[in-house]
Design a protein that fits this description.
Length: 210
């Protein structure tokens, strides 16, 4: 794996944190969540530490916001101004998994979005997708937005079970270099299930595009 990878998704609640934990463990990587908006008593960083059985180094968030809302709203209510210049990638000799907040168009301020943060950090992405009505539209819009900004999409993470027709259409519209990661459907993640998923994880070429 390249040194750094930004984990984003096609929306909120599609499993970015669990997938980030899986990839952190699989790549023996460190982890960084630049923005935590809400749930400060049970952060995504804490979830990574709980699931990972290796001594993962988790770097502190640049912004910790109290309200479980879009970062721009949480920041505004706390009188905080989120600036891209405040985000610095932690120095590490290991691969680094960086997890975003929500999807690509989640606002950090009235002007800047998560996709602007990715461009600022100049790193490739992994896009997490779940199968639901509308996921094809959301996925292809996300892929198109990354293309327009010349942000590499190194991996597509298919999180859970997929209808074959849905999977095929999504994968046919990916950049040729994007690899596919399939994460099995898990309702409640246990430490044993997590370890099994990591041990059996495979990264495949896109079989639909050739």
């Amino acid at each position: 794996m390249q040194q750094n990878l930004f984990i984003t998704g096609i929306g909120t609640g599609i499993g970015k944190t669990v997938c980030s934990a899986i990839l952190t463990q699989y790549f023996n990587a460190d982890y960084w969540k630049p923005i935590q908006s809400g749930d400060l008593h049970s952060t995504d960083t804490m979830t990574i530490q709980d699931l990972s059985d290796h001594q993962v180094t988790c770097y502190p968030e640049t912004y910790r916001l109290k309200q479980a809302a879009s970062p721009h709203q949480s920041a505004s209510e706390e009188g905080v101004s989120i600036s891209l210049n405040n985000f610095k990638i932690p120095e590490t000799s290991h691969p680094l998994i960086i997890e975003g907040a929500g999807g690509l168009m989640v606002p950090l301020s009235d002007e800047k979005l998560i996709i602007d943060l990715i461009a600022h950090l100049t790193i490739p992405t992994a896009l997490v997708v779940k199968d639901y009505l509308g996921c094809i539209n959301h996925t292809l819009l996300s892929v198109s937005a990354l293309r327009q900004r010349n942000i590499p999409l190194d991996y597509l993470v298919l999180n859970g079970d997929f209808n074959p027709d849905t999977e095929r259409v999504i994968c046919k519209h990916l950049p040729w270099e994007t690899k596919i990661i399939r994460v099995p459907e898990i309702k409640t993640m246990t430490a044993k299930q997590f370890k099994t998923i990591v041990n059996n994880l495979k990264i495949n070429e896109n079989e639909y595009i050739y």
